[in-house]
């Protein structure tokens, strides 16, 4: 992990005998969790995409000249597939989506450049989150993602993204709060960890990220919406009381929470339906030749053997995402 937080921890004047969420004196563990929560609540707005830019995406028609919400959602689903294919952490996917949305909300982007931008954000996120030994080469990412761009294209686009986002890569996201809320809940209840399943909550968060509308939600509110819906399904009174206290501590308005809970609930219901197209790995598999498969890291998903693709089969000069016209204008 080679990037540090773009902000430093600030001193917080907690009372010497601060009470925890249940009115008891804080343990060291809970004190640290609440201190983290306090800091993240203060800083989360710094990593939100510009709402005006997101509104433009939502209103944009689907054509070759303007980026639409549907095109963005499709790109995020591709990033989810890549995350699964390489066995990366959920944090990598969530961070890649955050970088992508912040860039798209700031810049006017042509649809033909979207795949290049998406892969750049994925690459940056992987370098921030994953161990260096687990990160594939840029060449492998290009081939497996079927992104029609060159390594040079990615390098130049990554420079643009880095500058426009002011190199603020390690963001506070809904996943940050989901982990914190989950840890706080477990520290206040004797319920088994399996009951409040973090993996399930992470999967639900990934489904929400495939819809542009959830990029407008504050990360803390989106995370609490997921948590409270899960607690509601578990019918746990203890967890419900803890969630209420977390909401009070986080100063999240009832109306705001209810609004996003409704949207999250609908999204998860839609995603669970058989009609919903979910990200899959099949379209990532056919592009891998025998030689590439042999060179891939052992943690990658296994792929069927295919005839080796000749070196000259693809003319990189014909890249649709060639940076010769990679001009991005800032959104007004």
Automatic annotation (TrEMBL):
GO cellular component terms attached to this protein's record: cytoplasm
Record's keyword terms, sorted: Cell cycle, Cell division, Cyclin, Cytoplasm, Mitosis
Record family assignment: Belongs to the cyclin family. Cyclin G subfamily.
Protein name: Cyclin-G2
Segments of this protein annotated with the region Disordered: 311-332
Domain Cyclin-like, first and last residues per copy: 77-163
Keyword Cell division: yes
Protein location: Cytoplasm
Superkingdom of source: Eukaryota
Gene of this entry: CCNG2
Function: May play a role in growth regulation and in negative regulation of cell cycle progression.
Annotated InterPro entries: Cyclin, Cyclin-like_dom, Cyclin-like_sf, Cyclin_N
Broad class of where this protein is predominantly found: cytoplasm
Pfam families reported for this sequence: Cyclin_N
Extent of Acidic residues compositional bias: 313-332
Amino-acid biosynthesis recorded as keyword: no
Gene Ontology terms describing biological process: cell division
């Amino acid at each position: 992990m080679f990037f540090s937080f773009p902000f430093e921890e600030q001193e917080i004047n907690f009372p010497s005998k601060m009470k925890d969420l249940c009115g008891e004196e804080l343990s060291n563990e809970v004190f640290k969790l609440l201190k983290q929560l306090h800091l993240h609540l203060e800083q989360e707005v710094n990593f939100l995409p510009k709402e005006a830019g997101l509104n433009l995406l939502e209103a944009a028609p689907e054509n070759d000249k303007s980026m639409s919400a549907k095109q963005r959602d499709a790109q995020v689903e591709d990033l989810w597939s890549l995350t699964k294919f390489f066995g990366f952490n959920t944090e990598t996917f969530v961070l890649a989506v955050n970088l992508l949305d912040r860039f798209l909300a700031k810049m006017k982007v042509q649809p033909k450049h979207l795949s290049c931008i998406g892969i750049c954000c994925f690459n940056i996120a992987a370098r921030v989150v994953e161990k260096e030994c687990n990160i594939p080469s840029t060449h492998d990412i290009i081939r497996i993602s079927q992104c029609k761009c060159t390594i040079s294209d990615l390098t130049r686009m990554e420079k643009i993204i880095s500058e426009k986002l002011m190199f603020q890569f390690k963001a506070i996201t809904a996943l940050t709060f989901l982990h914190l809320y989950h840890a706080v809940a477990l520290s206040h209840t004797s319920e088994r960890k399996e009951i409040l399943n973090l993996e399930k909550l992470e999967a639900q968060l990934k489904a929400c990220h495939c819809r542009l509308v959830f990029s407008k939600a504050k990360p803390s509110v989106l995370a609490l919406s997921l948590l409270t819906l899960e607690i509601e399904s578990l019918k746990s009174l203890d967890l419900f009381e803890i969630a209420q206290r977390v909401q009070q501590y986080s100063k999240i308005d009832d109306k705001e929470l209810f609004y996003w809970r409704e949207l999250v609930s609908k999204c998860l219901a839609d995603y669970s339906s058989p009609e919903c197209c979910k990200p899959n790995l099949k379209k990532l598999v056919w592009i891998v030749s025998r030689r590439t498969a042999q060179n891939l890291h052992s943690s990658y998903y296994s792929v069927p053997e295919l005839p080796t693709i000749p070196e000259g089969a693809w003319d990189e000069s014909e890249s649709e995402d060639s940076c010769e016209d990679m001009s991005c204008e800032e959104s007004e």
